[in-house]
Write a structure and sequence with these properties.
This protein is α+β, with helices and mostly antiparallel strands. The protein contains eleven helices and eight strands.
């Protein structure tokens, strides 16, 4: 029975991870520029091209279905004895790796170039301390090799065909409390946990917004300056309910733009854009 059950789970995973029939790319990716601009600790959001990607995007009401953490050349630096094997496996991207959790294989290191042909976004943690960045990389790299329970494929399968039938008010509930859904498929929870463990916020709940008239006043409030502002109080958000969209919307992560298409990006002038239906630009001395 165990073998039959595993075979059914594997079959379900294969169905959900098949490529979608149609995929719309918004902008072509400049891989060379992405390699130059991305930094260790950046979160790479992905609009995946698998069937399961559509399910996750619908449940999270987002353009992003997947998240990976950029670790760069950390494996080369930490395991110099494996340099030859890593270079043979990844080529030039041995210095440009991401760590991600996949339904098919669990937590793996993947080349950045893997996502060259899909829509991506880079989210950078603002002013993160170097020692905390090291701890985040340590935690995520330590997860490589961990396999996730493939039975989550069946949990997601029930949302695949009738997904449009889920009432809006139940979508987040399904995401939060669905069996192992967020913990074992959407790898943003793995990344969010690493940030949470060093006290870096992704999308915390604000318990007390602070400011005059908002924070509770004590008996000694009259001793404070009239313009004193109480700092806000945050409540930790469970990493299990963090989705790729939360990194996109978080005020604590900056969006890194790398897809500007222009000959002279240093002096970009939208007025010089050549549109398809425009008349040819007349240049001096040219008839």
């Amino acid at each position: 029975m165990g073998r039959i059950r595993q075979a059914l789970l594997d079959a379900g995973a294969r169905v959900l991870t098949k490529p979608r029939g149609h995929y719309q790319r918004i902008q072509p990716n400049n891989l060379g520029k992405l390699r130059r601009l991305i930094r260790k600790g950046d979160v790479l959001l992905v609009d995946g091209d698998q069937r399961i990607s559509e399910v996750i995007k619908y449940l999270t009401q987002s353009s992003w279905s997947h998240a990976a953490l950029y670790v760069g050349d950390e494996l080369l630096r930490r395991h110099p004895a494996q340099r030859a094997a890593l270079t043979a496996r990844f080529g030039v991207d041995a210095e440009h790796l991401v760590v991600e959790a996949l339904m098919e294989t669990g937590v793996v290191a993947s080349p950045l170039s893997k996502y060259e042909l899909v829509n991506v976004r880079v989210c950078r943690p603002r002013a993160i301390a170097p020692e905390h960045l090291t701890r985040i990389l340590d935690e995520v790299l330590a997860q490589i090799g961990v396999r996730y329970d493939v039975r989550t494929a069946l949990d997601l399968a029930r949302y695949f065909f009738p997904v449009s039938l889920i009432p809006r008010r139940w979508r987040r509930t399904a995401l939060d409390f669905g069996s192992l859904l967020t913990r074992e498929v959407i790898c943003s929870s793995m990344i969010a946990r690493a940030f949470d463990n060093v006290g870096f916020p992704v999308m915390p709940t604000v318990v007390s917004p602070g400011g005059n008239g908002h924070a509770p006043r004590s008996r000694l409030a009259f001793l404070r300056r009239a313009d004193a502002i109480e700092p806000p109080v945050f409540r930790h958000q469970s990493p299990h309910v963090i989705t790729p969209r939360d990194f996109d919307l978080s005020p604590y992560f900056e969006i890194v733009k790398f897809n500007v298409v222009d000959v002279d990006e240093a002096h970009f002038d939208y007025r010089q854009i050549r549109w398809e239906n425009d008349a040819p630009i007349q240049r001096k001395g040219v008839s």
